[in-house]
Prior knowledge:
The chain is of the alpha/beta class. It has helices at about 30, 50-70, 80-90, 115-125, 140-150, 165-175, 200-215, 235-240, 270-280, 285-300, 300-325, 355-360, 390-415, 420-425, 430-435, and strands at about 40, 110, 130-135, 150-160, 160-165, 180-185, 220, 245-250, 260-265, 335, 340-345, 365, 370, 380-385, 445. The longest helix has 26 residues, at about 300-325.
Amino acid sequence: MSSTRLDPYSDRYAARTHGMTASEIRALFAVVSRPEVVSLAGGMPAVTALPLDAVGSMIGDLVSGHGAATLQYGSGQGDPRLRERICDVMALEGIGVGGDADALPDNVVVTVGSQQGLDLVTRVFCDPGDIVLAEAPSYVGALGVFQAAQAEVRHVEMDADGLIPEALREALLTLRAEGRRAKFLYTVPNFHNPAGVTLPVERREQILALAEEFDLLLIEDNPYGLLGFDREPLPALRSRAADRVIYLGSFSKTFSPGLRVGWVYAPVAVREKLVLASEAQILCPPSLTQYAVARYLDTQPWEQQIKVFCELYRERRDATLESLTALMPDGVSWTKPDGGFYVWLQLPEGLDSKVMQPRAVAARVAYVPGIGFYADGAGQRFLRLSYCYPEPDRIREGVRRLAGVIESELELRETFGGIDPATLHGADAASVRATGTADEEGFAIRSRSGGSTPGADAL
């Protein structure tokens, strides 16, 4: 191996590694762990709201009483009892209710978090160069999976009501004219990460009709669906189209992210391939964590615990929105989520959330820049705020700091006129400008001053 290269293994790597980069969220880890920084970045659930003594005793009893099973290899598809209880959880969103004959524990594949489930689905369906449709913006972890699979991501526009059916039709017609097809559409319909918006029932029906018309497979990623603040859960896409939708679920948001237990609910033929792909990756999901989740669902008031989480996150959402309204300068606008973890904020014209980030870190507040949620490098005027982890007072302080940073950026823009903000921070302005390809005015969001951008009344 040559000793003159920075990486002596560079000529040995697979082609799929060439585009691998750290996500915008992971790049912040070293910063957000500092106690003086208010992190509005990571979507970490408030696990301290769990009855930790009861959960600890439950796990201890599992090991002491069932150690021979909990510490041993298990099924590649997952523990049968857990798969039964997963069906109970999905029933809350209409899956398996009303005559869905395909809603069976046999069609559940337990995964190491829903992230592994998404990776398995992508491995099963995508070859290098295949096209995947995804919302704009889209979950950063999904974009990383698609990038690793060397798939081509084409974004479909969203607004305050989520994915726009007319935009999906246009994307599908464009592909048809090119003589190509999408392997699937990836969507987060409930309390979207990062946008915080939710797809209404009418649009769900329109999107399912388009999927039928264009023979399109849907990947429904739904970690937040039970965490609504103002209504009962909406029916899952999977509940309306058994053969057209593959459903991804997770216990990371409703129980514990540290246990890393998720699942894929798929038609029989797909399930078989997912199990084979999972066995090739990990042999079997961890038995101890599966038994722990199953025992939690069997013995603890888990539905009541979800209500506790919802009230806690509602309080933190309210603190976020009230602080944004009180403190943000004119020209800043944001979505108003009715569940989940996230607010999607749009900066005034001329500001760039990635360029602004070092100034925010210096002011001891962290957020995720919008470009991390686009495969094409768009999203400079957007940023994601997460309200799930900090206490309300910390949220208010974080928003106060962020508002000060934005005001400083606006003063720089006013002082220096048309000079690119990236130049003022020592960045390569040309490279920053080159990444902006999306229509950043298309998102319907609520503004501080009470005025509206297109579609704001829908919120």
